[in-house]
């Protein structure tokens, strides 16, 4: 899992500002995911991408946006429309393609975002 | 769509005892069930997984069992050690296309395991 990096580790922003979280992987994985983790809530899927230039909304996509211009990169923007953005954000990747490859997801170290 | 319930939310055991965490899922078409361990402030790491065509899988002190009929799967940790203390998450991968989440993992809410020396 050292092949997935997220930066920065801690991020502080003022309410009303957009902020972009970085996620990079060098595992040659096709699929990438963004999760939000809140205490007692487990991991909730924000967005995912199974191929370059394509991405899909997860369960809690409102107030977030993503892009997938390169296979290695899947940045997440937390917009001012996200009502409760303070959380721990985890990026993951998987070699998943068409249901025949490994399903295992590898996680990055996470970014803890605090918005005041 | 798929829903994963995980119990208990907290579990405290004495070192050397066994620990069991249980998960139930709703989508009978789910075909992959991983377990992740997350230490405080760190990333979740896969510790064991099982596919729907297997009933049990072991890896040293940890094992996972799957009952497809009852739609539940369990994590068993034997001879627990203080370093086993962490939050454990189960997940299920539904096969069916549901609400834009095709092929993705649905996670339980986690179990905080504490192993007392």
Would you mind describing this structure in some detail?
The complex is a heterodimer of chains A (116) and B (117). Chain A is an all-beta fold and 116 residues long. Chain A has strands spanning 4-7, 10-13, 19-25, 31-38, 42-51, 54-57, 64-66, 76-78, 87-94, 106-107, 111-115. Chain A contains no helices and 11 strands. Chain A is globular and about 40 Å long. The N and C termini of chain A lie far apart (31 Å). Chain B has strands at 4-7, 10-14, 19-25, 32-38, 45-51, 56-59, 62-67, 72-77, 86-92, 106-107, 111-116. In chain B, strand 4 and strand 5 form a beta hairpin. Chain B is an all-beta fold. In chain B, the strands form 2 sheets. In chain B, strands 2, 4, 5, 9, 10 and 11 form a 6-stranded mixed sheet that branches. Chain B has a 5-stranded antiparallel sheet with strand order 1-3-8-7-6, with no helix packed on it.
Can you lay out the helices and strands and say which pair or pack?
The complex is a heterodimer of chains A (116) and B (117).
Chain A lengths: L3 E4 L2 E4 L5 E7 L5 E8 L3 E10 L2 E4 L6 E3 L9 E3 L8 E8 L11 E2 L3 E5 L1
Parallel strand pairs in A: 2-11
Antiparallel strand pairs in A: 1-3, 3-8, 4-5, 4-9, 5-6, 7-8, 9-10, 9-11
Chain B lengths: L3 E4 L2 E5 L4 E7 L6 E7 L6 E7 L4 E4 L2 E6 L4 E6 L8 E7 L13 E2 L3 E6 L1
Parallel strand pairs in B: 2-11
Antiparallel strand pairs in B: 1-3, 3-8, 4-5, 4-9, 6-7, 7-8, 9-10, 9-11
Indicate the structural class of chain B. Answer: mainly beta
Q: Average pLDDT across residues of chain B?
A: 90
What is the average per-residue confidence, as pLDDT of chain A, rounded to a whole number?
Answer: 90
Termini separation of chain B (Å)? 41 Å
Low-confidence stretches of chain A: none
* Strand-residue proportion of chain B: over 45%
Would you count the extended β strands of chain A for me? 11
Oligomer: heterodimer
Return the string of H and E elements of chain A: EEEEEEEEEEE
Number of H/I helices of chain B: 0
Helix content of chain A: under 10%
